[in-house]
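Thread: Metal-dependent hydrolase, structure

OP (GT): Posting the sequence first so everyone is looking at the same thing. Length is 269 residues per the record. Can we get the structure tokens written out before standup tomorrow? I want them in the notebook alongside the other entries.
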Amino acid sequence: MPAKRPAPLLQDSQLSLFDVEPEITPAEPGTPRSRRELWLGQHRIGYELKRARRRSIGFVVGPQGLRVSAPRWVPINEIERALHHKGEWILRKLVEQRERQQRIQASRIEWLDGGRLPYLGEALTLVLAPSEREVVWDAVTRQLRLPLPGGASAEQIRDLAQSWLQARAKEDFLPRCQHFAQMLGVSMKMLRLSSAQTRWGSASADGSIRLNWRLIHFAPAIIDYVVAHELAHLREMNHSPAFWDTVRSVLPDFERSRDALREESIVVQ
């Protein structure tokens, strides 16, 4: 008589702290998938079911909706029982995902004369100024004057504006890194800017720090949090309680900035 299989464990999907957008991991080639529906309370929910080699039922809520991964041997009724068990969490995450997509759509940058984008947490306005010889930043009017003709393409405007933002990012991030490195008693060997699609920052054991230049869009408190987070990894290369205590030693209310970062919706373009 075959041994009885253990009941599957329920697992919540957890996004990495520095994910810009939730991602759904591509299925393995040949992995069976199906589209199904069920009622959670008064809501009819569609979901994608993927059968995979695993020991538990997993849930992911991303831009494409709900995806469920389950072992091949688990029957549908048990999967649906698990879905009902996690129904409140699933509905909450679906609402959060829909609201996030709406914020992303609303925050898309239009690269044109008069276009607006965030810079250090506040909006700036792009102005085409063919009479200028270089990019000019007017901090009073918060206008970024670009030496481009009125008929400049979106690509020209984007490339020039982003080049300016990247230069400002390096100027802004370096003193922040030096400040928090001194507070934490660590040595930062090198600062590099990244254009990563899914991470705001990273740290290496050799003392190298990478920060996504698009952090320049955010308010200074959020930038400080990411900087302190990465530098704290030079003392604790993990996310243990000791690591979070290290971050808290220089940013006592870091949770506020961490939560704000998770809610931000700067579109990577």
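GT: Both are above now. Quick notes for whoever picks this up: The radius of gyration is 23 Å. Confidence is low (pLDDT under 50) at residues 1-31.
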